Amino acid sequence: MPKIDVLDVKGNVVGDVELSEGIFGIEPNEHVVHEVVVALLANRRQGTRSALTRSEVRGGGRKPWRQKGTGRARAGTIRSPLWKGGGVIFAPKSRDYSKKVNKKVKALAMKSVFSAKAQDNELRVLNQLVMDAPKTKEMVAVLNNINAQKALIVLPENNEAIIRSANNIPKVATTTVSELNVYDMLKYDVLIMTQESLQKIEEVYA
After folding, report:
1. 57 and 113 housed in the same domain
2. CA gap 35, 113 in Å, rounded
3. Do 109 and 156 reside in the same domain of the chain?
4. N or C: which end of the chain has fewer CB within 10 A?
5. pTM above threshold 0.85
């Protein structure tokens, strides 16, 4: 089983922990990761845009002039897309962009990214991360100590002090184990988690 050093907030090695082979030691599947990222981004699209076609624009029921004899082009309605105030040709309409992904595929994608982070030395495990009050300066110091400037901090559960401490730091974000997803993990260079977070992840994806 792969092992990883456990660090304290000062960056000192205080022990090590064995990582689950089935979660942090598999061969990453890039195709599955791509599929899940595409689905995640598609599911975030609202798809609420809409414009009016010629049949939906108010007015234009009467023929503007007779068909023949005026010398002008024939016209059936003043709401033609060719006219000012007319409808839109092939108007965009509301649609559902969502994609469904199998649970097993989602789990494999998560395990693939976990394994890639572990193999590329982009995973940091802290023995604990505790803050009594929001202190950005302290959080910056912790990140510098563990060499993680563009990082995603994975918490076992919501912690207001830690979240607010990281909010004002560029290229740093926080999430919980239950909200963790493939796209956010790929977006940041380093994945930071406490031993408690690691234990929860191994319980969820075992």
Report:
1. no
2. 13
3. yes
4. C
5. no
- Which residue segment(s) compose the domain that 2 sits in? 1-44+99-203
Written as six digits, the tokens of 76 are 């059936």
| pLDDT digits (tens), the chain, 206 positions | 678 888 888 888 888 888 888 899 899 999 999 999 999 999 999 989 999 999 999 998 999 999 999 999 999 999 999 999 999 999 999 999 999 999 999 999 999 999 999 999 899 999 888 888 888 999 999 899 888 889 999 998 888 989 998 988 999 999 999 999 999 999 999 999 999 999 999 988 87
* CA dist., res. 168 & res. 157, Å (int): 20
CB 126 within 8 A of CB 8: yes
In this structure, are 117 and 169 located in the same domain?
yes
Number of domains in the chain: 2
The answer on 151 and 69 residing in a single domain is no
DSSP string, 115-144: HHHHHTT-EEEES----SS--HHHHHHHHH
**What spatial distance separates the first Cα and last Cα of the chain, rounded to whole Å?**
14
59 and 144 in a single domain? The answer is no
Distances in Å between the Cα of 17 and the Cα atoms of 13, 24, 116, 199 are 11, 12, 17, 10
